[in-house]
Design a protein that fits this description.
By secondary structure, the protein is mostly helical. The chain has one domain. It is built from twelve helices and five strands. A three-stranded antiparallel β-sheet has the order 1-3-2. A two-stranded antiparallel sheet has the order 4-5. Strand 2 and strand 3 form a beta hairpin. Helix 1 crosses helix 8, helix 2 packs across helix 7 and helix 8 crosses helix 10. The N terminus is likely disordered.
Length: 289
């Protein structure tokens, strides 16, 4: 009889866990900003995917098919098609044969411009955090007083950050069996658990932080930080506890334990790869980071 094959745990990059700790706030703020574009999460992701594509190629923006949207978002084809129909009916998107584009009125609206500016500011905070752990060295440019428009370099940073947010949400969906909201609630819990030490010297915290360093957080605090209904967060947190991804700490709240992160080596490496790719994209575009 042959031996049963043992599962080999992937080697985690030495910077993966520090990058994960300092980038969680970027992902959570980014999700909050994206959700300002529509009341439905799936519709928001479709809007941002089309928006990101148009920002990356302003001169040759082409319609994107539903199948390509489904592939990029890692969402079921029928789910994407249903939301696309709704967005076309509402005028947010325009149909072009087999593809769709984001309506110009939406791309150029004051709200969209404001969201892009806030995404840029969020990206600058991430660059600062990556600098504290030795991965970047960025000096943000000062905007003109009263200006709400981004200059060329700031736009490059914002567009690259949009791409990272979309890719990170795809990673979350993959690990949480397609349930993006559970992934985001887990991310919010893990961020709150270690907020008091997230930006300390990386040399002391290269590995996963032990449970003794994690502080429980209440469901009410998570709901407030994510601006989501209490019941929505409670339901997803209960699911995370049932799956062993979080544990209850009595009345003090919930904790994302060390054991949950030991099962996420692949995802830790993917997040590190996203951060490195983000920096590489900026350097290729001439941004000093």
């Amino acid at each position: 009889m042959g031996r049963a094959k043992s599962k080999v745990k992937p080697e985690v990059h030495r910077d993966a866990y520090p990058v994960g700790r300092v980038s969680t706030e970027f992902f959570l703020r980014g999700f909050d900003l994206i959700c300002q574009l529509d009341d439905d999460v799936a519709s928001c992701l479709i809007i941002v995917t089309l928006w990101h594509a148009s920002l990356r190629d302003t001169e040759n923006s082409k319609p994107m098919g539903v199948r390509e949207l489904s592939r990029q978002l890692d969402m079921p084809f029928e789910t994407v098609r249903r939301h696309v129909r709704k967005l076309v009916r509402s005028g947010v998107c325009l149909a072009h044969g087999d593809g769709i584009t984001l309506a110009a009125t939406v791309r150029r609206s004051a709200r969209t411009t404001d969201v892009l500016r806030k995404i840029y500011l969020n990206a600058v905070r991430l660059l600062g955090s990556l600098g504290r752990i030795g991965l970047a060295n960025h000096q943000p440019r000062r905007s003109s007083p009263g200006s709400r428009r981004l200059d060329k370099e700031q736009t490059i940073i914002a567009v690259a950050a949009l791409g990272v947010l979309l890719a990170a949400m795809k990673v979350l969906r993959g690990h949480f069996d397609g349930d993006l909201m559970s992934g985001l609630v887990f991310t919010a819990i893990r961020a709150a658990n270690v907020q008091h030490i997230a930006n300390t010297a990386p040399e002391a915290n290269r590995d996963i932080l032990p449970d003794s360093d994690r502080r429980p957080v209440s469901i009410a605090a998570i709901a407030a930080s994510m601006r989501l209904p209490y019941e929505t967060v409670r339901r997803h947190a209960a699911k995370l506890v049932r799956e062993g991804k979080c544990i209850r700490a009595g009345r003090r709240g919930v904790v994302a334990p060390e054991s949950a992160f030991r099962q996420m080596a692949v995802q830790a490496n993917l997040v590190h790869k996203l951060a490195v790719g983000f920096l590489s994209e900026l350097r290729s575009a001439g941004v000093k980071v």
